[in-house]
Design goal:
Length: about 300
Amino acid sequence: MSGGLSTTGLVKRYGTIQALAGIDLEVPPGSVYGLVGPNGSGKTTALELIVGLRRPSAGLIDVGGIGERVAYCPDAAEFDPWLTASEVVTLSAGLIGRNVDDAKVKGALAQVGLGDATNRKVGGFSRGMLSRLNLGAALVCEPTLLVADEPAAALDPAGRWEVIELLGSLAGRTTVIVSSHNLNDVQRICDRVGVLAAGRLVYQGALRELLERAATALRVVVRQPTAPVVEALAAASWVTGVREEQPGVLIVEVSAMDAAEEGLPVVLAASGARLVEAGPAEGSLQEVFFQLTGTGPAGAGAQEG
Ligand code: ATP
């Protein structure tokens, strides 16, 4: 696999509304790229431009070496209700001129957790089942580039987990671009993210870098007694505050993450702590997202699109 997907100065206007104000996306081949942003920030527009469903007002899209077979899963897929799940998948493959045998169709449906529903008419499918079918109809085409708009939005927590894991498992073989409001999903499977706010790309890069930038606190879980550990941490030069959120769960505010990563094992060892786990405090990606996009609980809904 060579060459990724890139856009240069991508602009989309709907009349007087500027949905995208010139974005430069860089999606490396084989990556799972998460496009995140508040409502109305331009995610769907960007995805529709990439797959050729809309024309840009200005700018270029280069699908490079990964655009040989492009599959798009829109956020609210609709299928003819009288078809069965296997007919939808067969039809989908047929649209790109592929004859698929029964085993392949069943395999695609099993992959998305619809193995028991192959012969059911899709008119009776729940929203969650339709989301899975949407993905199955794409996967049967063995796309080199899979673009999925909020693929797990209609799913319950277990279903969400499965579908997100499935997308993550494609990494390396298929380039995946997935839009989501759910930062936990993005955090779990995406190696690279683009953050959109009001049609502008306000961050693009490795998720790890964003997390490092986001992390201002560590969550340290230790066995009791915690008092000596709290005292030792509070005395460290890189610690700006410590609180015990629950018994044994310490939230350690830090001034610099690299100093904290170096200093934490030293302080824990010196205080005789019995460590259960340590890592960036939860919610940090969400905080940086709020910062980058100018949203947050107080302004929630302000950018409704
Ligand atoms: P959401 O998270 O709510 O799905 P989004 O990030 O996918 O939003 P888009 O749907 O791309 O954002 O919309 C970006 C902007 O373009 C919004 O202001 C929206 O109202 C506007 N827009 C989108 N589609 C159209 C259209 N067909 N005609 C006019 N304006 C549109």
